[in-house]
Amino acid sequence: MVETKIKAIVVTVSDSRREDDDLSGVTLLGLLLSIGAEVHEKIIVSDDFDELRQTLFVLTERDDINLIITTGGTGFAERDNTPEATRAVIEKEAQGIAEAMRFETMKFNKMAMLSRGVCGIRNNTLIINLPGSPRAVGECFEIIKSVLPHAVNLLSGNTQHKI
Question: Per-residue pLDDT tens for 8-18?
């Protein structure tokens, strides 16, 4: 079985972050690189629903990407639109990923239950919403990193399982 390479884009969702203070995006970039992923871009998008939805839609149209991980915009604030923009784009939800992140991170941070992040698939691309703090990015990534290779394999059509 030939493993499909993880080809990712990091999307920081924030009205206030810039390249020089995007700690969550930089953290996520490093974590992806640490598992051997190719990171094609790291971008910052505003919390505006329409802009974020359009950005995610365009990114899922690309043939060179199979994973989009967002950081930020998953809380209760009025401008936290990441889950809604993601739902507007995806064709299938991947609820187990979001559930696992919330369940496992709640064991050491009760505030994790306030994360509204969702995960789903469009055009053979997996979108995963992570919270906006660097600490939460690290905690959530630790939960999902072992399943990412298998997820992108499945999305590429490689549905054989190792025995």
Answer: 999 999 988 78
- What is the pLDDT at residue 163? 53
Give CA–CA dist 46/43, Å, rounded.
10
Unique residue bearing structure tokens 């700690």: 23
Q: What is the pTM of this model?
A: 0.95
- Over residues 98-129, the pLDDT tens digits come to 999 999 999 999 999 999 999 999 999 999 99
Would you say 86 and 118 are in contact if contact means Cβ atoms under 8 Å apart? yes
SS3 30: helix
Residues 6+ apart with CB under 8 A from 70: 11, 12, 13, 56, 82, 86, 127, 128, 129, 130
* Distance, CA of 27 to CA of 112 (rounded, Å): 18
Q: Distance between the two ends of the chain, CA-based, in angstroms?
A: 11
In order, the DSSP letters of 91-138 are SEE-HHHHHHHHHHHHTT-GGGGG----EEEETTEEEEEE-SSHHHHH
CB atoms within 10 A of CB 13: 31
